[in-house]
Amino acid sequence: MSDAYLRPVTGHVPVLRLGDVLLVTLQGDLHDSMAQQLQQDLAETISRTGVRGVLIDISGVEIVDSFLGRVLAEIAAQAKLLAARTVVAGMRPAVAITLVELGLTLPGLLTALSAEAGMELLAQQKPVTRPGGPRQESP
Questions:
Q1: What angle do CA 33, 39, 43 make, to 5 degrees?
Q2: CA 66, 73, 14, 118 torsion-angle sign
Q3: Do 47 and 135 contact (CB within 8 A), yes or no?
Q4: What percent of the chain is modeled with pLDDT above 70?
Q5: Which H or E run includes 118?
Q6: Confidence (pLDDT) at 129
Q7: pTM, two decimal places
Q8: pLDDT tens across 64-89, in order?
Q9: How far is CA 57 from CA 14, 114, 132, 133, in A?
Q10: From CA 67, how far away is CA 128, in angstroms rounded?
Q11: d(Cα 26, Cα 138) in Å, to the nearest integer?
């Protein structure tokens, strides 16, 4: 399997590895089961690869409900425990308004206007120390 393309299985959201960052691009509606599978896949991939960042591009998402908002916050919390930062990029104004109306603050998530800005933001972040010792870089 290519190092760049980590999850080619049908029914899963593709997770691409770009250097030390995992890139997830969400398109359209994300069903609850797929959102939960994405959460599990990201935690496993971060743990296995030791990446330092996760960029979730939601520019193709029209609506974020409370469940998806909670999943995004949980992804960020899990990534932080695994010594990675999470950036959500490309949020539409209507999505931001909906999140505020729902009272979702999405703790632990950094935001960027575009995927490019998100990659720059992750590049500027200092590495997070892994629990139990210093961060080990992947070869």
A1: 145
A2: positive
A3: no
A4: 82
A5: helix 115-124
A6: 57
A7: 0.82
A8: 888 888 999 999 999 999 999 999 99
A9: 12, 8, 31, 31
A10: 27
A11: 26
Give every CB contact of residue 84 below 8 A, 6+ residues apart in sequence.
Answer: 22, 46, 51, 52, 53, 54, 128
Rounded to the nearest angstrom, the gap between the alpha carbon of residue 22 and the centroid of all alpha carbons in its chain is: 7
Distance CA 39, CA 41 (A): 6
**Which residue's structure tokens are 């729902």?**
102
Pairing of strands 21-27, 15-18: antiparallel
Q: Nearest-CA neighbor of 83 among 44, 128, 137, 132?
A: 128
pLDDT classification of 131: cutoffs 50, 70, 90? low
Give the separation between CA 52 and CA 90, rounded to whole angstroms.
20
Q: Which two tokens stand for residue 37?
A: 């599978």
For every residue of 60-115, DSSP letters joined together read E-S---HHHHHHHHHHHHHHHHTT-EEEEE---HHHHHHHHHHT---TTEEEESSH
